[in-house]
Each structure stands twice: as C-alpha cells, then as structure tokens.
Amino acid sequence: MSEPTGLHGVYPYLVSPVDTEGRVMRDVLARLVEHLIEAGVHGLTPLGSTGEFAYLNTAQRLEIVEVVVQAARGRVPVIAGVAATTIRDGAMLAREVMARGADGVLAILEAYFPIAEQGVEDYFRAVAEATDGPVVLYTNPQFQRSDLSLPVIRRLSTVPNIRYIKDASTNTGRLLSIINETEGRMGVFAASAHIPACVMMIGGVGWMAGPGCIIPRQSVKLYDLCRAGQWEAAMALQRKLWAVNQAFSKHSLAACIKGALEIQGFPVGAPLPPQAPLSESGREEVRRLLGEVSSL
Questions:
Q1: How far apart are CA 126 and CA 41, in angstroms?
Q2: Tens-place pLDDT, residues 121-171
Q3: How far apart are the C-alpha atoms of 204 and 212, rounded to whole Å?
Q4: Do 90 and 65 contact (CB within 8 A), yes or no?
Q5: Cα–Cα distance, 188 to 206 (Å, whole number)
Q6: Average pLDDT over residues 5-26
Q7: Label partner for 82 (CA 20 to 30 A): which of 58, 61, 181, 233?
Q8: What is 9-228's CATH superfamily?
C-alpha cells in the first residue's frame, strides 16, 4: 500500500492538565506530549472533547495549544480544537491557535439552540476561511445540538482546506456514506465510538480519540497492521483493545483518561469541576485493563 499523504494515523485527544487554581500544568503536559511522540503517534490534538474545552476559558485554551506546539517541536502535526457558539468567535479562535503554531484545526460547533443547516455550514466555512491549514470537521450527535447532515458535509468537502472529518456517531455506515458522498475529497478519522480497524477497512485514514492518550503504542501498532492490509492480525489486536473503548464510553471522558494517566505516572489532575473524578471502582477497572493490554 502506498504511503499516505496529508493527515493520517493516530491522533490522541490530549487531556488538559489544569490545577485547582486554574493554572495550566505546563511541565506535565509537555511530558505527556514527549511520551506520546516517543510512542510513535502521528499527530496531536489538544482541546478535543477529552481536552475539556467546554470547561476552559480562552486564555487557558490558547496556553494549552502553545505548550503542545512548543513540546512537539515540529515532529508531528498539532491539530488544535476550535469550539465556539458564534461564527465570529470560531474564526477568531482559529486565527489565534494558528498564530501560536498549530498546523491545523479541529472545528467544533457548540450550540445552545438548534441551528439550521445553513447556519451550521456558514460556521464551518468561516472557521476554514480563518486559516490556511487543514481543517478537520468534528461532529458528535451525543453532545451537540446541531449535527452535520450529509448534504452539508458534501458541500463543505468542496472547500479547499476542509479535508477531513471525525464523526463520533455510533453509525459506521454513516462513515461509509461520507466517504461515498465526498468522492474521496474528505478523509475520515475513527472516533472512540467506532471500531478503528473497521473504519480503516472501509477507507478511513486513522484514529482521532481520547484512548490514544493511554494506549498510544498499541494504537500505532493497530494502525500499522491496517495500513499493511494485515486484517486478521489487526482484528486480533482490535478485539483485545476494544475493552478500552468500552471503558471510555462507560465513564466520563476526561475522568477516564485522566484517571488512567495518573495510574501511568502522569499527574494530570482531576477533571475540571463540576465534573467528578473517576470512581474507585472505575480506577480499578481501568488499572486492570491497562495491565491486560500493556504487553500487546
């Protein structure tokens, strides 16, 4: 299989280590970045859902992007989450993260009220126009009031720098519809709600999700097996890793990944209030899972 071009592979959604006073724990975040790069990840995504963007102010968000960019030192692309409720703020944040060295943006629409399709399309077009880097559309029907429909995705795929989408629905058939509808113009990343190996089998370009933070080496191995077309070996590994996805969906996203990272020696702190930390039974479950997959 030929070498892929553009964004591809494993992009962990980074947690946001913030102390009880609201200060970004820069050293902890930089150490996590170094660990993930050493494990072979293909890129980094700060300020995704696991990054608790909804609980951070603008200054904290931009500082987190700055730390990740500085720690990455150009070794892998940094695709920073940009989330807002207004077109103006979405475009502003896109410009600001790019000014701090991000290589592209993960575009997220926050909506308190349902938004008409044209408004959804206008938002993502404005974010794309605010940057000359690649844009990854993010859609998560579980959390968002306004989803991206297939017609809107098809139209947005004609915008030159909107080249990827991460669809966090649980409908893998929708991913195949996106691939078909956009006629190869848009690369699809798997989310934690999907079976990554299956997404790559139907033409996905990689995996962009929180679990990559805690099982980066195993995630990269899974991607490499898929790229090599070794589907039997890939599915054997995928079956063993799926329990991590299940735990991630069972517990609060940030609590699960932050709890797992604490177990692995990264003092990233608790989820930002009013979120609750991982329960003791949850910690024991995650500790057991990490032990089971550590040798894979």
A1: 30
A2: 999 999 999 999 999 999 877 666 678 999 999 999 999 999 999 998 888
A3: 16
A4: no
A5: 7
A6: 96
A7: 181
A8: Aldolase class I (3.20.20.70)
